Amino acid sequence: MIFKVLYQADKTRIPRRETTQTLYLKCDTEMQARIQLEKYTNYNIEYVEPLAGKHLKYEENEPDFKITKFN
Question: What is the pTM of this model?
Answer without folding.
Answer: 0.90
